[in-house]
Write a structure and sequence with these properties.
299 residues; alpha/beta; five-stranded parallel β-sheet; 12 helices; disordered N terminus
C-alpha cells in the first residue's frame, strides 16, 4: 500500500521562499511610502521658497529627486534636501533683511524730517535706567509707564523693576545706566570685571518673568569734557563699556554703541550741567537704539 510522504526539505524551502516574498513586498511598500514622503517633503520646501531665481534651482533639485525615484535608483538624497532647506532659509533671510533695511531707511527719513515717532517705535518696549533714561518719561518722549528709571539709581537696582516687567511683558528691554555706577565704582567688590557680572545677574532676574524679551544694553555716554575733567571717575567709562560689550557678545544680547551721538562730549545734546540731555536728544537716541536692534536681527 503506497503512502504519500511530504519532503521536509522541500517544505522548508517553500516556506522560506514565501517568507522572503512577503518581506520583499513589505520592503517595496515601505520604499514606496518613503519615496512618497521624500517627494512630499521636497515639494513642500519648494512651495515655501519665494518665487525668485532660487526657485529655478530648487525645481531642478526636486526634479532630480523625482527622476531618481522613478528609475528605482536608491541614491542618498540628503544633499539635495539640504540644498532645498538652505535655499529656503536663504530666501527667508534675504526677505527679512530687505524688510529690516527698508524699516531703517524709513526711520532715517522720519528722523531727518522731524516726523520720527519715538513713542510708536518703542511702544512694545521698556527702558530701565537712571536719570538719563528717566528723561524719556519726564519729557513725555514715550509712555511714562514704560520708563522704569529713577534719578540717582545704579545698575544693582535693575531687578527691582521685576514686577513691572512681569506685568508689561515687553518684547525689548532697553537698559541705560552708568554715571552713578562710575562714581560708586559699582561691581568693583566682585573682581575687575565685576560690573558686567552684576549687570548679568540683575538681568537674569528680569528674564525669569519675561524670558522671551530681547535685551539691549546702552553704552555709557560721555559727558562734556569739562565735566569729565572735574569728575575723574569718568575715566573708567571705556572699561565699563568694554565689560558691557563683551557681556552682550557672550549672552547674545544687543550692545548699543552711542559714541557717534556725543562727538567726544562736544555734540549739542547736553543740558546745562554737562551730563544730562536736552529733550531734543531723545529722538535720535531712541532711533539709534531701535536701529541697532533692527541690525542685530539680520546678522
Amino acid at each position: 500500500m503506497s503512502q504519500n510522504r511530504t519532503n521536509p526539505s522541500a517544505s522548508k524551502k517553500e516556506s522560506e521562499q514565501g517568507s522572503e516574498k512577503k518581506q520583499s513586498q513589505k520592503a517595496s511598500v515601505k520604499k514606496s511610502s518613503g519615496d512618497s514622503g521624500l517627494l512630499s517633503k521636497a515639494a513642500a520646501a519648494l512651495s515655501r521658497i519665494n518665487r525668485t531665481g532660487w526657485a529655478v534651482i530648487a525645481l531642478v533639485v526636486v526634479a532630480a529627486i523625482a527622476v531618481g525615484l522613478a528609475l528605482h535608483h536608491e541614491p542618498d538624497f540628503s544633499a539635495g534636501m539640504a540644498a532645498l532647506e538652505e535655499l529656503e532659509n536663504r530666501d527667508v533671510n534675504d526677505m527679512h533683511a530687505k524688510v529690516t533695511n527698508r524699516r531703517k531707511e524709513e526711520m532715517n527719513e522720519m528722523l531727518e524730517s522731524g516726523t520720527f515717532n519715538v513713542s510708536a517705535a518703542m511702544s512694545d518696549a521698556v527702558i530701565i535706567g537712571d536719570s538719563r533714561a528717566e528723561g524719556f518719561g519726564s519729557y513725555q518722549i514715550i509712555d511714562p509707564t514704560r520708563v522704569l528709571a529713577t534719578i540717582g539709581e545704579r545698575a544693582d537696582k535693575i531687578s527691582t523693576w521685576k514686577d513691572q516687567v512681569a506685568a508689561l511683558q515687553p518684547s525689548t528691554i532697553y537698559i541705560s545706566y552708568g554715571g552713578n555706577d562710575l562714581s560708586y565704582n559699582t561691581g568693583h567688590e566682585l573682581d575687575p570685571d565685576g560690573y558686567a557680572k552684576l549687570y548679568e545677574k540683575q538681568i537674569d532676574e528680569l528674564l525669569e518673568v519675561d524670558p522671551n524679551a530681547r535685551i539691549a544694553i546702552n553704552s555709557i555716554i560721555e559727558p562734556t569734557p569739562a565735566v569729565a575733567a572735574a569728575e575723574p571717575w569718568w575715566s573708567k567709562r571705556d572699561d565699563f563699556n568694554r565689560q558691557l560689550k563683551e557681556l552682550c557678545e557672550r549672552r547674545g544680547w544687543v550692545y548699543i554703541d552711542n559714541s557717534s551721538l556725543s562727538d567726544g562730549g562736544n555734540a549739542p545734546i547736553y543740558d546745562a550741567d554737562g551730563m544730562h540731555f536736552l529733550a531734543s536728544f531723545y529722538a535720535p537716541w531712541a532711533a539709534n537704539m531701535t536701529m541697532t536692534v533692527l541690525e542685530s536681527e539680520i546678522q
